[in-house]
Write a structure and sequence with these properties.
The chain is mainly alpha-helical. Helices cover 71% and strands 4% of the residues. The protein is elongated.
Amino acid sequence: MTDIMAGMERRSGRAARGLSLAAAPAFAAMAWISAIGTPPIPLCSASAALPIDAMAWMYALMCLFHLPPWLNRTARRAHPHALDRGERQ
Protein backbone atom coordinates (compact mmCIF):
# COMPACT_ATOMS: atom_id res chain seq x y z
CA MET A 1 0.00 0.00 0.00
CA THR A 2 2.91 2.34 0.69
CA ASP A 3 4.30 1.89 -2.82
CA ILE A 4 0.97 2.98 -4.29
CA MET A 5 0.92 6.12 -2.15
CA ALA A 6 4.55 6.92 -3.02
CA GLY A 7 3.73 6.57 -6.72
CA MET A 8 0.75 8.87 -6.36
CA GLU A 9 2.88 11.46 -4.55
CA ARG A 10 5.52 11.34 -7.30
CA ARG A 11 2.87 11.81 -10.00
CA SER A 12 1.20 14.67 -8.14
CA GLY A 13 4.60 16.32 -7.63
CA ARG A 14 5.34 16.10 -11.35
CA ALA A 15 1.91 17.52 -12.15
CA ALA A 16 2.44 20.42 -9.73
CA ARG A 17 5.85 21.20 -11.26
CA GLY A 18 4.35 21.10 -14.74
CA LEU A 19 1.53 23.44 -13.75
CA SER A 20 3.96 25.84 -12.09
CA LEU A 21 5.97 25.99 -15.32
CA ALA A 22 2.81 26.48 -17.39
CA ALA A 23 1.53 29.48 -15.40
CA ALA A 24 4.04 32.16 -16.50
CA PRO A 25 3.75 31.56 -20.27
CA ALA A 26 -0.03 31.34 -20.00
CA PHE A 27 -0.25 34.68 -18.18
CA ALA A 28 2.22 36.24 -20.62
CA ALA A 29 0.03 35.13 -23.53
CA MET A 30 -3.10 36.48 -21.84
CA ALA A 31 -1.35 39.82 -21.17
CA TRP A 32 -0.31 40.07 -24.82
CA ILE A 33 -3.75 39.13 -26.12
CA SER A 34 -5.55 41.61 -23.87
CA ALA A 35 -2.98 44.34 -24.65
CA ILE A 36 -3.39 44.14 -28.42
CA GLY A 37 -7.17 44.11 -28.29
CA THR A 38 -7.85 47.13 -26.08
CA PRO A 39 -7.97 50.85 -26.80
CA PRO A 40 -5.45 53.04 -24.94
CA ILE A 41 -6.58 54.66 -21.69
CA PRO A 42 -5.23 57.77 -19.99
CA LEU A 43 -3.39 57.26 -16.70
CA CYS A 44 -4.04 59.91 -14.02
CA SER A 45 -5.25 62.46 -16.59
CA ALA A 46 -1.89 62.46 -18.36
CA SER A 47 -1.84 63.56 -21.96
CA ALA A 48 -0.14 60.35 -23.07
CA ALA A 49 -2.20 57.19 -23.03
CA LEU A 50 -1.01 53.75 -22.07
CA PRO A 51 -1.43 51.16 -24.81
CA ILE A 52 -2.70 48.50 -22.39
CA ASP A 53 -5.60 48.30 -19.97
CA ALA A 54 -5.87 47.13 -16.38
CA MET A 55 -6.41 43.47 -17.28
CA ALA A 56 -3.20 43.40 -19.32
CA TRP A 57 -1.30 44.91 -16.37
CA MET A 58 -2.79 42.30 -14.06
CA TYR A 59 -1.80 39.44 -16.38
CA ALA A 60 1.72 40.89 -16.74
CA LEU A 61 2.08 41.04 -12.94
CA MET A 62 0.80 37.50 -12.58
CA CYS A 63 3.37 36.41 -15.15
CA LEU A 64 6.12 38.05 -13.07
CA PHE A 65 4.89 36.42 -9.88
CA HIS A 66 4.96 33.01 -11.55
CA LEU A 67 8.50 33.34 -12.96
CA PRO A 68 10.44 31.77 -10.00
CA PRO A 69 9.98 28.16 -11.19
CA TRP A 70 11.52 29.15 -14.53
CA LEU A 71 14.35 31.01 -12.80
CA ASN A 72 15.04 28.03 -10.52
CA ARG A 73 15.07 25.69 -13.49
CA THR A 74 17.50 27.95 -15.35
CA ALA A 75 19.76 28.23 -12.30
CA ARG A 76 19.83 24.45 -11.87
CA ARG A 77 20.85 23.98 -15.50
CA ALA A 78 23.52 26.68 -15.31
CA HIS A 79 25.07 25.45 -12.01
CA PRO A 80 23.89 21.88 -11.38
CA HIS A 81 26.59 20.93 -8.86
CA ALA A 82 26.55 24.16 -6.84
CA LEU A 83 22.88 23.80 -6.01
CA ASP A 84 23.31 20.12 -5.05
CA ARG A 85 25.82 21.08 -2.32
CA GLY A 86 23.47 23.73 -0.97
CA GLU A 87 25.60 26.65 -2.17
CA ARG A 88 23.85 29.64 -3.65
CA GLN A 89 25.41 31.89 -6.22
